[in-house]
Amino acid sequence: MPDLILASASPRRRELLARLGIKPARVAPSDIDETPAKAELPRDYAMRMAREKAVAAADNSAFVLAGDTVVAAGRRILPKADDEATARQCLELLSGRRHRVLSAIALRSPDGSLRERLSETQVRFKRLSDDEIAAYLAGGEWHGKAGGYAIQGSAEGLIAWIAGSHSGVVGLPLFETRALLRAAGFAIG
To answer: Coiled-coil intervals in this record (predicted)?
Structure first.
């Protein structure tokens, strides 16, 4: 049975894979341009990123699993927050409203075939006060996170409602990942 390579540096994706009893043989993050194309819709962007990451880490002796998670407010793709100002803008935009989290996965098989799945989750934050936003930002969980928050941390206490895959919001939709791996012939319980 060929090994599995995870085309992601995300420790959360490794932790989520472990819940399925899978430890990747290797982690090979893909260094690709993640700039959205002009007028690219969030769903198309997420799928394209997962595909490109899987192809960039291609290895004909192993399965390569890649993923991408996008937070979208309407047609707008929210950035990964690399600074506090960006995280604040995201949280202010998401406060009291529903948004979508699109988690795309792509699996490249040793024979070169590519399979893809997408998980779409609806999330609604409570209306956030300035003090709640400041407290969340002070914790630093937002750094590097799409939409400026990490649902697996203290932000979970600010979420009023979720419909869909919690693991997808974290970064790897486990139901879809398990189905994709099984369909490709990767041995999984």
So the answer is: none
